[in-house]
Specification:
Structural class: alpha+beta
Number of helices: 15
Radius of gyration: 33 Å
Largest sheet: 6 strands, mixed, barrel
Strand order of the largest sheet: 2-3-8-5-7-6
Distance between the termini: 25 Å
Helix content: 40-55%
Shape: elongated
Strand content: 15-25%
Length: 411
């Protein structure tokens, strides 16, 4: 008895009958179950990975990899000295200052809350992708080409639409702090001209963010001359941002507080990771259900081929060889189902990505993003084949323990 014999017998048991070369209906159903489970699992993981990647790229398009602020909540004075120290840190490529504050925007009796961000248009291009999201105007338009001129402001598309503003329109920016006077605090109002509109695709930013130049933001928010709210830092490898942030913290010490994009969006990406994990577990259950078909198929084969198994044992086949025959059957079903399911899953991903469109006013992408990773393919394949193998243990043990005397008694 050799391994070749076991494979030959295993293949014969999967056929509809001894003389036919076609697979039995039970075998086809078992393979189909694994195929559907693998295709669904692969397509789901690819779509969720694509959404994670797309969301991450959108967030990093608006924000830098690391944000450094003063832990005491006060402005950073002489930022150029700090920038010179930071640029010597390994892994850091660019640094840009920024100013952050809040204000109310008013136009044609319509008022809306806004987050003001003061930026240096030239340096901002090296740490974020805001310039790429501009649908009207440019970041450089924040700096007026001729003096005197009304200071410029760039608005998110949803914010501009709600205020009914376009390029060249005037908008009043109202500070919540107010200005001291003989009559107490009075609202501090400045007139700005809309010089640009951006659209990132993320509602949180498009609906609230307004960009000013650094000098205009400092004057309006009342910051000391030359002071900024913090520094935006770009690194070479985004997945090492947290490690570099810790290195910066150790190097600069108190009161500086560097935070990576992962730390600032920890809850969001933790929820996405948990969702992907839960979906993987749920869809693995589809393969688990398909394994019940494998168990029933092999159990029916054991019952149907009891006489043949008994004859094999009387001819010298060992329990180990009989057990291996049915394990080979289960593995073949799992492998064939996986091999068929992977290209079907890829086809589903291709159709979702190229033929299914999403409404732009609801989602931040116009089509379903799909990313197929080798790690996901391996996880799906090993899960399907592993479950298929485990499904063979009971029927294989049942077949190997068959008593040939009892099986042949009534034949």
């Amino acid at each position: 008895m050799t391994g070749r014999f076991e494979w030959k017998v295993a293949l014969r048991y999967l056929r509809s009958n001894r003389r036919s070369r076609t697979l039995s209906l039970q075998t086809i159903i078992s393979v189909s179950g694994v195929t559907v489970g693998v295709a669904a699992l692969m397509a789901t993981l690819a779509v969720m990975t694509g959404f994670q990647h797309k969301l991450r790229s959108k967030i990093l398009g608006i924000n830098s990899h690391i944000v450094l602020t003063d832990g005491r909540g006060i402005p950073i004075s002489r930022p150029e000295v700090l920038i010179a120290r930071i640029k010597g840190t390994p892994g850091i490529t660019h640094v840009a200052p920024f100013i952050l504050g809040q204000a109310m925007l008013s136009a044609d009796k319509i008022v809306s809350g806004s987050v003001l961000r003061g930026i240096d248009p030239g340096a901002e291009k090296s740490v974020t992708s805001l310039d790429r999201y501009m649908i009207r105007g440019r970041l450089s338009d924040l700096v007026p080409s001729k003096k005197p001129a009304r200071p410029g402001i760039i608005l998110g598309k949803d914010l501009a639409d709600r205020l009914n503003l376009g390029l060249g329109d005037s908008v009043d920016v109202i500070s919540p702090n107010g200005t001291p006077s003989a009559f107490g605090l009075i609202p501090k109002i400045r007139h700005f001209s809309v010089v640009g509109i951006f659209k990132s695709g993320l509602y949180e930013y498009d609906n609230t963010l307004a960009l000013l130049s650094l000098p205009d933001a400092a004057r309006f928010l009342g910051l000391p001359a030359g002071s900024v709210s913090g520094l935006e830092i770009q690194v070479t490898h985004i997945m090492k941002a947290s490690e570099i942030a810790r290195s910066l913290s150790d190097r600069l010490g108190y009161p500086y507080w560097p935070r990576s994009w992962l730390q600032m969006n920890k809850n969001l990406f933790s929820a996405l990771f948990l969702e992907k994990t839960v979906m993987f577990v749920i869809l693995v259950l589809i393969v688990l259900v398909a394994s019940f078909n494998i168990v029933s198929t092999l159990t029916m084969i054991v019952m149907d081929k009891g006489k043949e198994i008994a004859i094999l044992k009387t001819m010298g086949a060992t329990q180990r060889q009989i057990r291996r025959i049915f394990m080979i059957d289960g593995l073949l079903i799992g492998v064939v189902g996986t091999v068929l399911g992977l290209p079907i899953g890829y086809l589903i991903c291709f159709m979702l990505e190229h033929f299914y469109r999403l409404p732009n006013d609801v989602y931040f992408v116009s089509h379903i993003p799909v990313i197929i990773r080798a790690s996901d393919i391996l996880a799906v394949s090993f899960s399907a084949i592993g479950i298929s193998f485990l499904a063979t243990l009971y029927p294989a043990t049942q077949a190997s323990s068959l008593d040939p005397i009892q099986a042949l008694r009534y034949e």
